[in-house]
C-alpha cells in the first residue's frame, strides 16, 4: 500500500511538473513567433489605396489585413525594383562563402587533429586569442584594403566573398573536436596500405563527417546571408552591389518609410524561407554536428 501511494504521488508530481513545463514552453513559443506572424500577415496587406483607403503600404494599428493581396510580392519580383539583383547577390555571396569556408575549416581541423608539427599548440592558442576580439574592430582596415584592390562598390560581391572566406580556418574548434572522436587507427590502417593523407581525408574522413560538414556549411551560410554592417561599408553608395539586408534597411530608413513597410515585410519573408527550409531539412545533422564537436576538443 505504501509503495502504491508513493507511485501515485510520484505520478501526480510528474504530471504537474510536465504541465507547468508545457505551459511555459507554449508561452515562450507564442512570444517568439508573434513578430514573425505579424511580418507574414503584413506582407499580404494590400498596397492599393483603393482597397485600403488612407493606406499606402505603411504601418497600421491592426494586425490582420482587411484585404489580402500579393501586391508586395509582385513589386519585389516584377522588375520595378532591384530586389531580384539584391537577392541574387546575397545568394551568390552566401553560397560561395559557405563552400569556401567549409573547405578551409575542414582542412584546418583535420590538420590540427591528425598531424603533429612544431608550433602547432602555439598557433592554436594564438588563433583562439584572436577569435576573442570582435570582427568589427578590423572593418575600417579591411575596407581600405579592399578599396585598394577594387573590391568595393562595383566589386562588392567578390570583396565580401573574399572577406567571408579569408581566415575562416580560425573557426576550427568544433570541427576539430568532431575529428578527434574519429579513431586514428583508421587513418593509420589506410596509411599502411599506401593511401596518402589527401586520400584518407577525402575517402574516409569526409564520408564519416557529414554532421559536422552540414553544421559548418550552415553556420558559414548564415553569416553573409544576414550580414548588414560590413556589407553596407563595402557596397556604400552603389545600389547594384547591395545585398538584401542593406537594401531593405535603406527602404525603411532612407526611402519613404510609410510606403515601403509592407514591401519590407514581404522581402523579410522571402529571405527567411530558404534558411527555414535548410534548417528543417538538415536539423538532425546540425544537432549531431554540434554535439559531436563538443565532446572532445
Could you characterize what this model shows?
With 297 residues, the protein is mainly alpha-helical. 71% of the residues lie in helices and 0% in strands. It has 13 helices and no strands. α1 packs antiparallel against α13 and α12 runs antiparallel to α13 (257-293). The termini are far apart.
Q: Please report the distance between the alpha carbons of the first and last residues.
A: 52 Å
- Number of helical elements: 13
**Biggest pleated sheet:** none
Low-confidence stretches: none
Order of helices and strands: HHHHHHHHHHHHH
Helix content: over 70%
Structural class: mainly alpha
Q: Which shape, going by the Cα principal axes?
A: globular
Strand residues, percent: under 5%
Arithmetic mean of pLDDT:
82
Radius of gyration: 25 Å
Number of strands: 0
Map the helices and strands.
Layout: H1 2-43, H2 71-77, H3 83-114, H4 120-130, H5 139-148, H6 156-165, H7 173-180, H8 184-192, H9 197-208, H10 210-225, H11 229-234, H12 244-253, H13 257-293
Could you write a compact summary of the structure shown?
This protein has 297 residues and is an all-alpha fold. The protein is 71% helix and 0% strand.
Features:
single chain; 297 residues; mainly alpha; 13 helices; 0% strand
Amino acid at each position: 500500500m505504501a509503495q502504491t501511494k508513493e507511485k501515485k504521488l510520484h505520478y501526480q508530481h510528474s504530471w504537474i511538473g510536465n504541465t507547468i513545463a508545457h505551459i511555459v514552453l507554449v508561452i515562450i513559443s507564442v512570444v517568439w513567433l508573434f513578430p514573425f506572424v505579424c511580418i507574414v500577415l503584413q506582407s499580404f496587406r494590400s498596397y492599393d489605396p483603393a482597397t485600403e483607403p488612407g493606406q499606402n503600404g505603411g504601418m497600421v494599428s491592426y494586425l490582420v489585413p482587411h484585404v489580402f493581396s500579393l501586391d508586395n510580392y509582385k513589386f519585389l519580383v516584377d522588375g520595378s525594383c532591384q530586389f531580384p539583383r539584391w537577392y541574387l547577390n546575397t545568394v551568390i555571396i552566401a553560397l560561395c562563402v559557405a563552400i569556401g569556408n567549409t573547405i578551409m575549416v575542414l582542412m584546418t581541423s583535420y590538420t590540427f587533429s591528425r598531424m603533429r608539427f612544431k608550433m602547432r599548440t602555439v598557433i592554436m592558442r594564438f588563433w583562439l586569442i584572436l577569435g576573442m576580439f570582435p570582427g568589427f574592430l578590423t572593418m575600417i582596415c579591411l575596407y581600405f584594403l579592399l578599396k585598394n584592390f577594387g573590391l568595393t562598390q562595383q566589386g562588392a560581391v567578390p570583396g565580401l566573398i573574399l572577406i567571408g572566406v579569408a581566415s575562416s580556418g580560425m573557426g576550427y574548434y568544433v570541427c576539430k573536436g568532431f575529428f578527434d572522436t574519429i579513431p586514428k587507427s583508421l587513418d593509420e590502417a589506410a596509411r599502411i596500405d599506401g593511401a596518402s593523407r589527401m586520400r584518407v581525408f577525402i575517402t574516409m574522413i569526409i564520408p564519416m563527417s557529414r554532421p559536422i560538414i552540414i553544421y559548418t556549411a550552415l553556420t558559414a551560410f548564415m553569416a553573409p546571408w544576414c550580414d548588414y554592417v560590413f556589407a553596407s561599408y563595402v557596397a556604400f553608395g552603389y545600389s547594384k552591389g547591395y545585398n538584401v539586408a542593406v537594401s531593405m534597411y535603406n527602404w525603411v530608413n532612407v526611402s519613404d518609410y510609410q510606403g515601403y513597410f509592407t514591401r519590407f515585410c514581404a522581402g523579410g519573408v522571402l529571405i527567411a524561407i530558404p534558411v527555414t527550409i535548410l534548417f528543417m531539412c538538415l536539423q538532425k545533422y546540425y544537432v549531431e554536428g554540434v554535439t559531436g564537436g563538443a565532446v572532445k576538443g
